[in-house]
Specification:
It contains no helices and 16 strands. A hairpin with a 2-residue loop joins β8 and β9. The radius of gyration is 24 Å and the shape is elongated.
Length: 195
């Protein structure tokens, strides 16, 4: 319990554990509306309830089970990719979440809410195409295998439309059409060139 709705968080929130039947009781609460956060440590999606009337209102809270997405990442030559970054984006997570692969190239993204997702990976100069349309149901364990390919390079020059001279003070954002995409920002060279 975090405190009265709209107020600053309490320095020490009230914490109570539910019993084996899922019941819980807070004693000696102040009158008025409260904010309640409910979590079981990751097997279910956490819930936050604002404007809860206390102490007269009895609550029935349902937590939705979460899922996990795991798998392995391989380099272009077939070796497992230790330390690769795996990124998950989709309907139940925003912004995108990332994890690093272990020494054996394996990864796990836990506590994933139900939804449709995209997964991709990158490691040094290798990257994967996004794996799209991964449907995740509550309690499921989805496994994906990701194979990296050599990344491409984009180069060019930013020029003034009127004079045709290179613009050295320009900043460039490169964004791909993918859920998990991050904009890559860079400053162009003095002559307007970039790579």
């Amino acid at each position: 319990l975090l405190g009265a709705a709209g107020d600053q968080p309490l320095p020490e929130p009230w914490i109570v554990l539910s019993d084996t039947a899922g019941k819980f009781v807070f004693d000696t609460l102040p009158e008025g509306k409260l904010v309640l956060d409910v979590s079981d440590g990751g097997a279910h999606e956490p819930q936050s309830l604002a404007d809860v009337n206390a102490p007269t209102e009895e609550l029935a809270i349902k937590l939705r089970r979460t899922a996990a997405i795991s798998g392995k990442v391989s380099l272009p030559g077939g070796q497992l990719a230790a330390g690769a970054t795996v990124t998950l984006a989709g309907s139940g997570i925003w912004p995108a979440r990332s994890v690093r692969t272990l020494a054996d190239g394996s990864f796990e993204l836990a506590a994933v809410p139900e939804g449709i997702y995209e997964v991709r990976a990158e490691h040094e100069s290798s990257i994967s195409a996004p794996i799209e349309g991964i449907s995740v149901q509550p309690g499921a364990r989805v496994r994906v295998e990701i194979v990296l390919s050599p990344s491409a390079s984009l180069s060019g020059r930013v020029r003034d439309a009127t004079s045709g001279r290179g613009l050295g003070a320009a900043e460039l954002d490169v964004v791909e059409e993918a859920l998990s995409a991050r904009a890559r920002q860079l400053k162009v060279g003095a002559d307007g060139s970039f790579q």
